[in-house]
Amino acid sequence: MTDAALPPIQADAPLDRLNTLALPGRAQQLLTITAPAQLTALAHQPAPARRFILGGGSNLVLQGDFPGQVLRMAIPGRELAAEDDDAWYLRAGAGENWHDFVRWTLAAGYPGLENLSLIPGTVGAAPIQNIGAYGLEVGERFHHLEAVDLTTGEVVRFDRHQLRFGYRDSLFKQEGWHLDGRYAITHVTFRLEKHWQAVTRYADVEKELAAAGIAAPTALQVSDAIIAIRQRKLPDPAQVPNAGSFFHNPVVDAATAARLAAEYPTLPQYPQHDGRVKLAAGWLIEQAGWKGRNLGPAGMYEKQALVLVNRGGATGADVGAVMAAVQASVREKFGVGLTPEPIFL
Ligand code: FAD
Ligand code: EPU
Predict the structure, then answer these.
(1) Does the beta carbon of 240 lie inside 6 Å of ligand 2?
(2) How high is the pLDDT of residue 4?
């Protein structure tokens, strides 16, 4: 690979506009990646002290300047890559906007991703934390991904069974690759079944469709319903900077769940297959008094207490202070620990 394939390097680049919490920070080097060959070329250069792979920055807490190389993934492309009797296989470049890709699949007649409408970010990041919403996780539609191993320059493929998907979890997080930037995902392929069935088991979705008088929704109608629900509850990062849910919904053992149910009968509880129980973190945070409450320039959103928002001018340290205060309140009141969802850089 020749140096001609290397992308231009921007030195001392601001990252404020590249993270949806709008936190300040600069990258020592910023490179925008538009083709896999650029990654192969980079792999043959001396390795930087640190490297981070950036998508849309919508699940990120920037803690200040980054003394290393940031690769901003902007590889384009979306196509019907293959088809068999049972399914369509849709392949997209890592840099595609996730929601635009979902709407494109629906317009082109390939249903299956509609429950994940309006999730910010890129296609390439979707498998990292196994994005999920309204009764579906992307792992259920994932087929394989292609990535470049930046330690060797090799193109590698990961299939679904290798990715060990869990709730907001995958092999990439389990191995720490989401932090050390070893693998840059270049393309993701989804398997969408031809025998499509609407997933409407999430109570909010059922209610929204019933209110619109829709008994047998199309995939597009499910997508529209979910967009409407999300727009009512979640702040648009362009208006109110945020990173979506700031904590995981905690999963506790059955005894803890029973103790909490006895004391707090209205606490939403979701039994899991393994006997454990998922609790609604938004409810815990609201009951701990944090809904709409600020600490300095950051706080918890007034319509959804699980969303941490930057009220203007917050830094990574301000976000960290709110996080710690909320964790302490919830632990004190309920004896439950909260784990942050976004990646801290
Ligand atoms: P980034 O924030 O840029 O990166 C996230 C992680 O992925 C980092 O570790 C990064 O290194 C890694 N990464 C990104 N691209 C690549 C690549 N090409 N190769 C290798 N590693 C890569 N999430 C949900 O699951 N469900 C929701 O309902 C949801 N709602 C949200 C609502 C709002 C308003 C916001 C702001 C966020 C929400 N999120 C939700 C979180 C976020 O949208 C997802 O985590 C999304 O997948 C992040 O994509 P991104 O491109 O912005 O990734
Ligand atoms: N709730 C409250 N107060 C609040 C917020 C929520 O009491 O301030 C209660 C709600 O009334 C409801 C329950 O908590 O009974 C769950 O709330 P909601 O349906 O809004 O979903 P969530 O559990 O807060 C999760 C995901 C979201 C995803 C939605 C829809 C996590 C951490 N969050 O939120 O994902 O969009 O469900 O499926 O699992 C994200 O990961 O960034 C994200 C936004």
Answers:
(1) no
(2) 62
Counting ligand 1 atoms within 8 A of each CB, the residue from 21, 51, 59 with the most, and so the one to mutate, is 59
Q: What is the pLDDT of residue 86?
A: 98
* 329 flagged as catalytic: no
Give the chain's largest Cα–Cα span: 66
Q: How far apart are CA 36 and CA 9, in angstroms?
A: 16
Out of 245, 260, 334, 338, mutate this one to test ligand 2's pocket (max ligand atoms within 8 Å of CB): namely 245
Put simply, whether the predicted model's pTM sits higher than 0.90 gets the answer yes
CA distance 202 to 167: 16
C-alpha to C-alpha distance for 156 and 88, rounded to whole angstroms: 22
Catalytic choice (114, 137, 208, 341): 341
Per-residue model confidence as pLDDT tens digits over 251-273: 999 999 999 999 999 999 999 99
Residue 3 per-residue DSSP state: G
Are residues 98 and 281 in contact, defined by beta-carbon separation less than 8 angstroms? no
Encoded tokens for 12: 């001392």
Q: Is 306 in the pocket of ligand 1 (CB under 6 A)?
A: no
